[in-house]
Amino acid sequence: MASPKSDVHSSSVTNTGRHLLFIDGVWAEPMEGGFFPIVNPATEQVIGEAAAATAPDVDKAVKAARRAFAGGWGKSSGASRAVYLRAMAARIMERKEELARLEVADNGKPLPEALWDIDDVAGCFSMYADLAEALDQRQNEPLALPDDRFKTVLRHEPVGVAAQIIPWNYPLLMAAWKVAPALAAGATIVLKPSELTPLTAIELGNIANDVGLPKGVLNVLTGFGGPAGASLVAHPDVDKVAFTGSVPTGSKIMMKAAEDIKTVSLELGGKSPFLVFDDADVENAVEWVMFGIFWNQGQVCSATSRLLVQDKIAPKLYARLAEEAAKIKIGDGFEDGTLLGPLVSKSQYDKVVAAVDRGRKDGVKLLTGGNRPANLNTGYFLEPTVFVDVPTDHPLWREEVFGPVLAARTFHDEAEAVALANDSTFGLAAAVMSKDKGRCARVAEALEAGIVWINCSQPTFLQAPWGGVKKSGIGRELGHWGLENYLEVKQVTSYESDDAWGWYIKSGN
Ligand code: ADP
Questions:
Q1: DSSP state of 3
Q2: Dist CA 278 CA 186 (whole Å)
Q3: What is the pLDDT of residues 354-374, one digit of tens each?
Q4: Max CA distance (Å), the chain
Q5: What is the model's pLDDT at position 199?
Q6: Test site for ligand 1: of 174, 194, 241, most ligand atoms within 8 A of the Cβ
């Protein structure tokens, strides 16, 4: 049985139906949790219902994943797994428009961004198909030892059952970043999408069946963080937990996983700085600064949400930024020309508005935005918002807002800029803009971050490592680093000499 057909071919999506849990290759009713509504954040209308998994569903899904792992997937060749990954990539591209429409209805992002996401989703499955094949070539690779009586070879074996818990900002792309490398490695999966955006992860279940992925290799449990996510992390038969989301939830997950010594990888929040030096081109700087904070409504873990501008260029840059930010077209992601959609949910909207209101109340200078657009009474819309001269001890400067809200301040010289940039508990990304290549290289080296962009912000390539330092997480996703998250390395060491070892039993005795 497939998940119900939705009306995704209409200009927008109004009814996607009632969605079940994908366990062991079939769609199953939730045992205890019932269903929860799926809301379009642009219209505030309910566009479907998803099953709320609870502990008994989690147990069923983990057992299915374990059976699939032991039943052959865990021992299959990378080349055979690559066939499924490529087929999934092809199916995703066949359904590109439809999946993008579901993403817009569920998350609110503008359609061109969603289409771009789906290209990346397919690209991610294709890249990990290549890496799955390459993995076969790495099996039993010899390791040079200082003692030629011994020989060591290395095996790269899948971790087992992986629990993958993902957020709502890039619903299908975040699923792909975790599902594709795990499949490539030979792990089996229980995926839990965010309760705010379950629709495209559900379709991943249908896609798995379309390509004949063995039953139980991928299971998709929709549901809430509490009952579904927490019982998945706590399940004794889960070997690895991969999480993308907020720092407090990541911390809870890590503590729970520690009880059973489960491996964790965490991709958490950020408050990434963007440093613009006096010699930068103002138009270019304004373009990238806006892309760094308004793209995806600022709901991006790597959003460059702290702007540091060298004092000489600041007046001009602020003036142009205010002008351009006010021109950004806000609206339903299905409308042509929309560049800023709604925030994902009422609760996210309330959180972001509370952060803006706090800034106002504390007298932080508002350069532009800060309000609901006058023409949009329905939907969780907020204008692109920029505060300037933000004190370094203010929450707007220190805490992740996860919305289209930029906090800016000026700096005098390079040393001050780097010190201000690094004065954060986060360390996911950072950007620097200057015509001086030497300075860019120096600053890139000095910045405490897992990702540094020079003369740009946010471009993300599937081949490059993604992840942060400090409270921004543990480990790296994407590229071959993403594959290693789902592999354990095993050394197989043999004694190759004909001579007796001779420790206890001496020769000649
Ligand atoms: P947000 O508050 O913005 O939704 P979270 O980090 O809480 O961000 O959520 C990211 C993902 O983590 C979602 O899929 C959510 O359901 C899940 N989640 C939330 N709390 C827990 C928890 N205690 N254990 C496991 N997963 C959780």
A1: P
A2: 50
A3: 999 999 999 999 999 999 999
A4: 97
A5: 98
A6: 194
Active-site annotation holder among 49, 301, 399, 414: 301
* Closest of 127, 135, 118 to residue 207, by C-alpha: 118
Q: Alpha helix locations (H) across 29-95?
A: 55-70, 78-94
Q: Is 113 a catalytic residue?
A: no
The protein residue whose alpha carbon is closest to atom 26 in ligand 1 is: 229
Q: Which among 228, 242, 131, 223 has a CA at the least distance from the CA of 177?
A: 242
Q: What is the 3-state secondary structure (H, E, C) of 361-400?
A: HCCCEEEECCCCCCCCCCCCCCCCEEEECCCCCCHHHHCC
Q: What is the pLDDT of residues 140-150, one digit of tens each?
A: 999 999 999 99
pLDDT in tens, 477-501: 999 999 999 999 999 999 999 999 9
pLDDT tens-digit readout, 250-280 = 999 999 999 999 999 999 999 999 999 999 9
Answer yes or no: is pLDDT of 309 > 60.
yes
State whether the beta carbon of 269 lies less than 6 angstroms from ligand 1. Answer: no
CA-CA distance, 457 to 444, in Å (whole number)?
Answer: 13
Q: What is the mean pLDDT of residues 275-289?
A: 98
Could you confirm whether 267 is annotated as catalytic? yes
Percent of the chain with pLDDT over 70: 97
d(CA 204, CA 220): 8
Structure tokens given for 340: 């800023």
Q: How many CB atoms lie within 10 A of CB 494?
A: 9
What φ, ψ does residue 344 adopt, rounded to 5°? -70, -25
Q: What single-letter DSSP state applies at residue 212?
A: T
Report d(CA 254, CA 232) in Å as an integer.
Answer: 13
Cβ 198 vs Cβ 275: under 8 Å: no
Q: Is the CB of 230 under 6 A from ligand 1?
A: yes
Band (12; pLDDT cuts 50, 70, 90): confident
DSSP conformation class of 450: S
The residue nearest atom 15 of ligand 1, judged by CA position, is 225
**How many other C-beta atoms are found inside a 10 Å radius of the C-beta of residue 459?**
10
pLDDT number for residue 506 = 84
- Residue 196, sorted as left (phi over 0), alpha (psi -120 to 50) or beta, turns out to be alpha
